[in-house]
## 1
Amino acid sequence: MSREVYIIDGARTPFLKARGVPGKFSAAELAIKAAQPLLLRQPFSATQFDEVILGCVMPAANEANIARVVSLRLDCGDAVPAWTVQRNCGSGMQALDTAAQRIASGASDLILAGGVEAMSRAPLLFSDPMVHWFSRLNLAKTPMQKIAVLSKFRPAFFKPVISLLVGLTDPVVGLSMGKTAEILAQRFNISRESMDEFAVRSHLRLAQAQQSNSLSEVEVIYDQNGRAYEHDDGVRPDSSVAALSKLNAVFDRPHGKVTAGNSAQVSDGAACLILASAEACEKYKLHPQGKIVDCCWQGLSPSQMGLGPAYAIAELLKRQALNLKDIDQWEINEAFAAQVQACLAALQDEEFCQQELAWSSSVGVIDEARLNVDGGGVSLGHPVGASGARIVLHLLKTLQANKRKTGIASLCIGGGQGGAMLVENCDV
Amino acid sequence: MSETKFEGLLQLPNLILEQDGDNLVWLRFDQQDSSTNVLSKAMFSDLNAALDKLEEIKPAGLVITSNKKSGFIAGANIEEFTQVENSEQIIALIERGQSTFNRIESLPFPSIALIHGFCLGGGYELALACDYRLVNADEGARLGLPEVLLGIHPGFGGSARLIRLLGVLQAMPLMLAGRTLDAYSAKRIGMIDELLPARNLTQAIATYLKKKKAKRSKKLLFSFLELPFMRSLIAKRICKETAKKIRKEHYPAPYALIDLWQKNGGSFTDMMVGEGPSIAALFEHPTAQNLVKVFFMQQQLKKLGTNKKELGKKELRPTHVHVIGAGVMGGDIAAWCALRGMTVTLQDREAKFIEPALKRAAALFEKRVKDKVKRQAILDHLIPDIQGSGVERADVVIEAIVENLEAKVALFKALEPRLKPGAILASNTSSIPLESMASMLREPGRLLGIHFFNPVAKMQLVEVITCEQTEPQWFDKGLEFVTSINRLPLPVKSSPGFLVNRVLLPYLIEAVELLDEGVAAERIDAAMLEFGMPMGPVTLADTVGLDICFSVANILSASFELSVPELLRKKVEQGDLGLKTGKGFYVYKKGKAVKSKNISSFGPGKDEITERLLLRLLNECVACLREGIVENAEQLNAGMIFGTGFAPFRAGPMSYIQDQGVAEILNKFTRYQEEVGDRFIPDAGWQALLEAQKSEKNRS
């Protein structure tokens, strides 16, 4: 049994740049604040969801199965099951894919799905020596034993482990995500200048979108002091290649090309969508805005993880018997400028396409005028668990705005994977 | 599941006594024909019968609890106290209570009070007589000795026992302010022994009963504090603190309690014996009588919103409130409703208008809800809603936008077709006649005025306003809603200013007239504070905002004979709007009025100031009553007490008129009409009052 899967509506929080201190919102709060306005405008009540599925990579210690926490706090009620999915940077898209499959199979009719991340709240951890010292102290029974353990303490134990950095380092190949981008820049010969140009364009496009109010899916959120956050706050409308060129490489120091300016920002944010079957649309008189047609996941070497979209897009096109020119709009998540540019280069490289993707020729050229038209991770941030849901939602919004039918949203995934989702606008 | 088997020992009208397999006796209060337990004559007689039985059979232990959902025991039967004729009878009532509770305390086996819900006054005094107090955390509780609020103090040994338990420094402030605490706070300071989930109760009872009788020896520190010189030192200090809040001539009970302790605090028995005569003396003071009246007024208003059985059904109760306009009133109404457990959507045009409301709400929740999980739930349910999506979902839609007829009508017209069937539609207007808005709607009978007072979290009164067109079903729903958010609904007919603002305005204007004559603001305020108002009229005007006073004055002057003083106009034109601009009739620094040290004594004397202000207020009250703005004098009294804080110990303006004598007050009108002017012409309604009082005198 395979049924159509409709996107009914969606909303997201502004993406808030991490500024060196824990952000004002917990991950659960972000998801709740994205979903509340979305739910308020529906003709059905939150208790009528069949399930809630959220993607999240690093929920806080008090947010185990964060989807359930969010579901209960949204008043979906005790009876609505909720679960959390994790495919690293692909978690938000994974939640949509899983929800879509649950609907297609007939298991569910109405699902709240999305992704969330509060990266600014990633904890500092005690170092291994510190943890061992604590346990020994705990086990020491006599006062003499305790004194002996106490005397072993070294100030260096205090050096914390920054879990965010650990999370952004591949544990199998031992490379940070930034280094994998450096590898791609080298392989596809992407210059520092072109990366910076790409980054500037991302900022200018987002600034333009904010000015023309074309980010209608962004909802105002308020912190506990009542302060409102209305826009993605990482945008730099005054960004320029000259300014970006002054930044130092942060991953391959000091000679590399990937800088903080041409990488995605570390941010907090959430995006939620409502997915429904045709039956649910009829039952609640819902107007479907879009359709999730297919979703494809591919694996590749972790050291080249940024190329994931090239693999996933090629596979998706093949499976759906589509050509690049059949796709009207594109969203490829900007983890790194170099990484998106590498994907574009790879898809038009005949040798790469033949050897790596098993295509007879090159896949083709993606028109950059139709790619990330309102900015991307470099300008608005990449809260890892949320981005996959954000790009699908925004893809649908751009299809609607341009009165186009078909689009693909794709992202690279730490650990060496790529995901791509094919979306159709129902209003065309 | 194993179930404890009980064997009945006694079945009395107001309680059940039964024994379980472990030789424990359970005494369950269950007052007949009532949803709450109160300590009435009948209750005491049943309790004593039960104690006879207990003393005879000597079980291993006693558990005292209640079968009522509402709680343990809500207090003494206040009506019985109002029916006594002399102080001997009062002392007899008190001795009956004390001796009964002493019997509980001296039972030869341990006793446990197993508490849930209301455990107040005599109810908590009974619990204090038990060896241990356990609270069922699943249901929560409210505990304390609030007798002072009725003009008396604890009398069933409560003052002696609470001081023995907590020490004077902890116990006295609680009793002096009549503060009641939730179970969590009560546990923290030791008013109860344990707060535990229902599933642990059986085990906990077994554990406590093994402990045998509680040791009732005092902590050494407490005994030290009760040495004569310490007592007089502490009493003096507490008196000083109390005097900062209330005056002895207005509220003698707290002072009597301090006095009682200063004289007898050295001995538990003396303290107990002293309670009776002290309370008897308090009952002779009009304050106690009046505060009891106020208590009944409050009960009456509550009843207005709860006696409609079919509306009382839980599933029909409102759960979602949509507030439009996030200004001071709208924002605070939204916060209050959220605090009372509603889902609230708060709409305004832009985020920046909602921000201050959420900030105030967060501060309110922080103060009122200590439990973090509960506070989070409340915050989750106060949802900013710029798009106004909440309208379709709301059970109550309250408008609190700018006071402009066209804007309001346009809003209501847009709202009406979007409302859920059965949803209440209400305006929080303070000045626009309801009928002028209602008549523009498709269903004019639906619109209500639900008028809150500032600050919403403090002012208990809410005027529920109806006009000719209003359909009774919507009126009933409005009363029910106001009661459900723990406010007191006062039915008021639509007329400019409704009740509270209309009555207050001439009073405020008279204050401005006095200022204009050159009387110092400090003297005006002092006169009314001495009368018993919670705030002087000049400070009140500054706090409300002179622009708001001015606009209400203009609206009222169009309908009533009322001249708006030039001074008020000038202040508003100069932009000196009061507290909010830092300058009004006073100058404010950091939110506090700067009062001058050498106050000019220019102008009329204190009594004259008081009389002029008061006569204007009373005159408007009488006019409102004559016009039927409120149904009767009791409701008018309640409105003024709970809506403006009108000296509660005087039981409201109409009671004050009765106490002073109608004829005497009319004489004063004559005098001021001659000396000051025609604004002191008594309303036509005084004549009826005069005749009523005369005929009452003749009858008696």
## 2
Amino acid sequence: MKQVFSKHYWGDKDISLLVGQILRIGVIFASTILILGGILYLIVHGQDAVPNYKDFVGEGNSNTTITGIITGAFSRNIPQVIQLGVLLLICTPIVRVIGSLFGFVIEKDSLYIIITLIVLTVIIGSILSGVKG
Amino acid sequence: MDHTNKHIFMTILTFTIILLLGAFVAGLLGSLTGLGGGVVVIPLLTLLFHVDIRYAIGAALLASIATSSGAATAYVKEGITNIRLGMFLEIATTIGAVIGAVIAIYMPTNTIAIIFGVVLIFSAAMTVRKKNEHALSGGSALAEKLKLNSTYPADGKLVPYKLTNIVGGFSLMGVAGILSGLLGIGSGSLKVLAMDSMMKIPFKVSTTTSNFMIGVTAAASAVVYLQRGYMDPGIAFPVILGVLCGAITGSKLLKRMNPKTLRIIFAVAITLVALEMIFNGFQHKF
């Protein structure tokens, strides 16, 4: 088990392959949810008139907050099911950064551990600064 | 407002199908020319569908993430992405992206449209420029210190390359980040300019590294836009799915053809679209 966390076991290339695999799964997962949500949306609303996208009103709380999206999606509200797919898609590059952090930790590259942590802090700070009640 | 009368009744089903096809073409062209899917999505939504530019920017950001993550899975296998370089420059682009997303809230939409048009013309010009093909052998001390020099595989051998002008490249990345956050695009062309022209990185490395960075930069501003209500589910799903399919088809086609002629045609077409965006921006149509 110990060797799993050694530098020898995980070469540079293995890490990027692993991260690539995570990305692939993330994209497939997000698209599957989007396809499902999209089909449901078209079945229910397909014959309705297109909403007025010309004037910007913005989305309501259920479509803009993480809790709103997740609770909505689990109550099978179609718009939030789609937003869940959107949320997952946004997460894939962030997961890739976390994967690289994992790689730098194994390589004991302290300079790049710090650099990656700065990038993650900016992204997380950006998420938290916009959080609404 | 003068478009109102021209509008015919359209069902959500028709809207979705046309948008899906349009996004597919956007993803296809974006990947064949290296412009990225997001750049084509904004004029598609605003000029063709008369969607408010704020919804368009939200959708374009998602298109950028979709193409970046979708294409990345094909790139990592080849092992040419310089993850250290990408991560180091991400400090500049993510901070820029957050600043850009905040500026976007206070900037009039017509001004955003005009800036978008100017960036679009620049990007189009960048797609037909000459690429930096050779590796630099004498890099700067800072590149050495930051462990940015690396190798890439070519013809079965590992070619070493070194970097220079790190500070200049880093600053230009900050600008790319601001534009990305402001306009919802990946700013791939500006990223490649910073890496190719300033830091002297071979284009094989700069294209894949830029692709890695686009996703992360876009995600940093996407969370701001999502929370501001710029991302509409009804627009998001056809745009993401269409662009993703188009980008995957494009990357498969790229292995079999050299899209040089297509690049020139597309650069001209995109310039015309950009001029229309600028014109409409000055006419206060956004």
